Amino acid sequence: KIDFAHNHLGDEGAVHFAQLLKVNESLRTVNLSCNEITDVGGIALASAFIPSANPSGQPSQWNRSVWQFNLSGNLLKEDTLIAFSNAITCNTDFTELDLTNNLIGPQGTKVLARTMTRNNMCGIRLSTNDIRDEGAAYLCDAWKRYGSKGTQRHLDLSRNNLGQNAGEHIGTLLQGNEFVMEVNLQENTLGTKGIRAIMGQLLINPSACLRVLNVFDNCIGDEGAEDIAKYIALDTTLEIL
């Protein structure tokens, strides 16, 4: 395990660290959170997990030991997520990539479906990334088609500027779902229509395992609260609201 969080590494430090990763065979957990890394450094780090030709003719060197990588609180955009999606498909032992509080945006989430076809056991954390309704649609579709009972049990889309349309996609994902146990939607703009879109689908076909639902600071209104109350009255698995 190595923890270099809050060290002002920047892109130059990230590039050097990527070279280290290529030859390392012992690290399992890496924390480079809050280091002012942009896509330049992010792409370099992702390349450490992808086989590439060696100019000297020697076997290529690439990391196959890291399971968890924390890059939260940096300045990473969609190109880093695209690069890491390729890395995750090359290293199927990769179980967690934390990109919380970056700048991924909606377009970056397009790659999730392709990534999950090759490695659906890797959880990618995207809270606070401004993915908006469009990004939520891509993410929910990927989880619906390729999700599993492993690392996809916790859906955290907090602080992502989600609105009514996102609620419809989240509802479709959760309807009759058998693997998502916790959902965090706090500090979005779902509103009454968004939360009713979610609960409306759950009332038709309740989730088989949803335990936690966080809708703090979403302006759900009286009608939204009423729909949640109806869902609780069904004697569902929900334990924490």
Structure report:
Strands 1-2-3-4-5 form a 5-stranded parallel sheet, with no helix packed on it. It has a 3-stranded parallel sheet with strand order 6-7-8, with no helix packed on it. The chain has helices spanning 10-23, 39-47, 78-90, 105-108, 112-118, 132-146, 164-174, 191-204, 221-233; strands at 2-3, 29-31, 68-70, 96-98, 123-125, 154-156, 182-184, 212-214. The longest helix is centred in the middle third of the chain and has 15 residues, at 132-146. Helix 6 (132-146) runs parallel beside helix 7 and helix 7 runs parallel beside helix 8. The model has no long low-confidence stretch (mean pLDDT 91). The chain is built from 9 helices and 8 strands. By secondary structure, the chain is an alpha/beta fold.
Extended strand count: 8
Instruction: Describe the sheet with the most strands.
Output: 5 strands, parallel
Low-pLDDT sequence parts = none
Sketch the topology as an H/E string, one letter per element: EHEHEHEHHEHEHEHEH
Question: Roughly how many Å is the radius of gyration?
Answer: 19 Å
General form:
elongated
Instruction: Indicate the structural class.
Output: alpha/beta
Average of pLDDT: 91
What fraction, in percent, of the residue positions are helical? 40-55%
- Record the strand order, biggest sheet: 1-2-3-4-5
What's the N-to-C terminus distance?
Answer: 35 Å
| Number of continuous helical runs | 9
- Approximate strand percentage: 5-15%
Oligomer designation: single chain
